[in-house]
């Protein structure tokens, strides 16, 4: 069986990361898994996110993925450490699972000029405090202001963000964040679903506020990681094959694929656990 990079998200959001990985590393085989049947994860408890993420990771391991990117901030915030520290060493010592928070927090402090950074994410990501804690390690002088955006993932999953109600919620969370701290000049889209809303978000931002979207950075760091870890790199086939799997109906997923990824790609429904 061909080895592939596994890319996991609760739903469609991780497609933004898959796209960046493919743009940078077009020959690498990838398997994308969206747990759409159980999305969104953002409001779920720590235990449930841990269990669902672990099930998805083990599923991708069974599909011969030696390395998995949790292309989901919520899973990266809540489940990654447990998987890396308690599951991999005893059960899968030769496999790797990486998240999206670390690559972002290493870099974002260098981008802000004002020293005030906004984090927009799911309730799970915000409550975990992962972003402020991690950014403080790399950029201790930067202030981090968080905003949870509970309606944004459902707006993407249901493709209703262009409707009036959708636009209302996009503006609402942007305004709430900037009211907390008007000096913010950099906003991290700390949820892989949010780049799909990027153009809408930009309309509501004052001039000079930059949006930081993780996809390209995660791809760059992954490429660099594989250059430094040839043992894992050698296990990944380079035939440019991409497989897209979902735990929900593939017809529904394919409608979104046309919108968020690329037309003419077909997903396959799978049972994760
Ligand atoms: N794309 C996920 C993230 O980056 C969305 C989480 C959810 O399902 O609520 O956090």
Helix fraction by DSSP (H/I, runs of at least 4): 40-55%
- Sequence of strands across the biggest β-sheet: 4-3-1-2-9-10
CATH architecture label of the largest domain: 3-Layer(aba) Sandwich
Query: How many strand segments?
Result: 10
The profile of the biggest β sheet is:
6 strands, parallel
Low-pLDDT residue intervals, each spanning 5 or more residues = none
- Which structural class fits the helix and strand makeup? alpha/beta
Order of SSEs, N→C? EHEHEHHEHEHHEHHEHEHHEHE
Look at the structure and give the CATH class of the largest domain: Alpha Beta
Supply database-style keywords.
alpha/beta, 4-stranded parallel β-sheet, Rossmann fold, 2 domains, 6-stranded parallel β-sheet, 10 strands, 273 residues
Give an overview in words.
- The chain is α/β, with parallel strands linked by helices.
- It folds into two domains: 5-99 and 216-269, Rossmann fold, CATH 3.40.50; 102-214, Rossmann fold (3-Layer(aba) Sandwich), CATH 3.40.50.
- It has 13 helices and ten strands.
- The strands form two sheets. It has a six-stranded parallel sheet with strand order 4-3-1-2-9-10, sandwiched between helices. A four-stranded parallel sheet has the order 6-5-7-8, with helices on both faces.
- α10 (198-203) links the parallel β7 (186-189) and β8 (210-213).
- α1 (15-24) packs across α11 (215-228) and α5 (101-107) crosses α7.
- The model has no long low-confidence stretch (mean pLDDT 95).
- D-glutamic acid binds at residues 9-11, 13, 39-42, 72-74, 122, 125, 153, 191-193.
């Amino acid at each position: 069986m061909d080895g592939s990079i596994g890319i996991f998200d609760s739903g469609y959001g991780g497609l933004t990361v898959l796209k960046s990985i493919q743009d940078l590393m077009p020959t690498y085989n990838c398997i994308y898994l969206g747990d759409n049947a159980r999305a969104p994860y953002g409001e779920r408890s720590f235990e449930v996110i841990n269990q669902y993420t672990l099930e998805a990771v083990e599923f991708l391991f069974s599909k011969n993925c030696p390395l998995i990117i949790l292309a989901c901030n919520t899973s990266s915030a809540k489940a990654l450490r447990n998987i890396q520290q308690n599951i991999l060493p005893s059960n899968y010592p030769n496999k790797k699972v990486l998240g999206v928070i670390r690559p972002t927090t290493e870099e974002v402090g260098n981008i802000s000029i004002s020293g005030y950074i906004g984090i927009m994410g799911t309730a799970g990501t915000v409550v975990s405090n992962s972003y402020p804690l991690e950014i403080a390690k790399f950029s201790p002088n930067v202030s981090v202001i968080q905003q949870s955006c509970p309606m944004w993932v459902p707006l993407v999953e249901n493709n209703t963000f262009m409707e009036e109600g959708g636009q209302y919620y996009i503006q609402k969370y942007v305004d709430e964040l900037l009211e907390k701290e008007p000096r913010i000049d950099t906003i991290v889209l700390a949820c892989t679903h949010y780049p799909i809303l990027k153009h809408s978000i930009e309309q509501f931002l004052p001039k000079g506020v930059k949006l930081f979207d993780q996809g390209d950075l995660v791809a760059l760091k992954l490429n660099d990681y594989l250059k430094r870890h040839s043992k894992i790199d050698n296990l990944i086939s380079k035939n440019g094959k991409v497989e897209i799997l979902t735990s929900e109906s593939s017809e529904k997923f394919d409608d979104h694929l046309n919108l968020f990824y690329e037309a003419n790609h077909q997903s396959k429904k799978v049972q994760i656990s």
